[in-house]
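Lecture 7 notes: from sequence to structure.
We start with the chain below.
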Amino acid sequence: MSNSDVIIFEDVSFSYNGFIALEDVNFRVKKGDFVSIVGPNGGGKTTLIKLMLGLLKPARGKIHVFGESPEQVRTRIGYMPQYAQLDPDFPISAVNVALMGCLHKKISGNYSKPEKQAAQAALEEVGLLNLAGHPFSELSGGQRQRVLIARALVCKPDILLLDEPTANVDAEVEEKLHQILRKLNERMTIIVATHDLGFVSMLGTIVMVYK
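Predicted structure tokens for the same chain:
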């Protein structure tokens, strides 16, 4: 394994109840890469992301993240899921949503001053520090997406995984997300799973296509 390889898939296959979702997948992601995984809904993109996180285990093959199993290094990975498990009407502020990115804490846990500062810094990085105290339910769709990216950044990850980050946002928001991700890529590896070819063409990234 090269020292620059941060993710390696070797002959990875995965099935859901006998249905083959991925078969004999091989690829390597190097430190500092910006990779777009492109394919239709149901094409296996989210499955790939969950395998990288160790949330799923392959039926066959090997996965290495930083030379270890995904479960061992999960705290080095920031993750923005396709559908956040968060009721948009739940009475919680933007900064408290970001604080959920402190993976070792429960939602009801007490957060330390450094953790609160990390959440504020993450919101600042996505341009939303001024809305830190605003209810999440009152934010626009694009602002919510950026808060969820901030949540993924709180753990100060080396890899950022984003599943359909442009879902239900307009072209102006896509451009803002493009700028944010380009800046973040200066210090971390980024992998985006999307069916949005327009966003991918804007990014100009390494592309893996799944059908």
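Points to note: The beta strands are 5-16, 19-30, 34-38, 60-65, 77-80, 159-163, 189-194, 206-209. The chain has one domain: 5-209.
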